[in-house]
Design goal:
- This protein is an all-beta fold.
- About 0% of the residues lie in helices and about 55% in strands.
- The protein is built from no helices and 18 strands.
- The strands form four sheets. Strands 5, 6, 7, 8 and 9 form a five-stranded antiparallel β-sheet that branches. Strands 14, 15, 16, 17 and 18 form a five-stranded antiparallel β-sheet that branches. A four-stranded antiparallel β-sheet has the order 1-2-3-4, with no helix packed on it.
- A hairpin with an 8-residue loop joins strand 3 (about 25-30) and strand 4.
- The protein is globular, with a radius of gyration of 16 Å.
Amino acid sequence: MVAVAAVSGSPSWRELYGVGANGKVAHRWKRDGHPWHDWYPARFGGTARDIALTSPLRGQLEAFVVAADGDIWHRWYVDRKWSDWGSLGRPADRSPSQAVTGTSYQEKHQEIFVMGTDGDLSHRWHWQGNPWDPWYSRSAPQGTVVDIAVAAPGPGRLHVLVLDDEGSLWQRTYHPQHWSDWERVG
């Protein structure tokens, strides 16, 4: 494996996605009191380099991959079945993506952040029943970003964390209608 992502679609259910060294995407799942299922091919038609998962509603999942060409693809799990993969394209500046992360900070809503091959950051979000908002470029801290993560500690709040090429960890937070400046946290 070269990348993994996990999410819980309900209190007793865990889903794990992985990207193999060959770029193939697979997933497995577990319910409390039962063993992990075997790895199952995720039917992604190309090769991938990174993966993220969100759960915008109880019992629903969404998987995001960064394809080898840098485009972002996604699929979702609703009513006990997975959709086909669909393209979300590339971020606003059209540079190839290399890493993706996502979260849901309230019901029916999800956010994804991608890091480009030049360390640039982009972001978009989705409310169920509506189309995805367009890609927005986001500033990055000084240096070159090499990895990204996001957490949602509460409704309307985000914490974006990035790792730079010197091993420093940076954080930027969002509280309703306001993004903080980047702050070095490690």
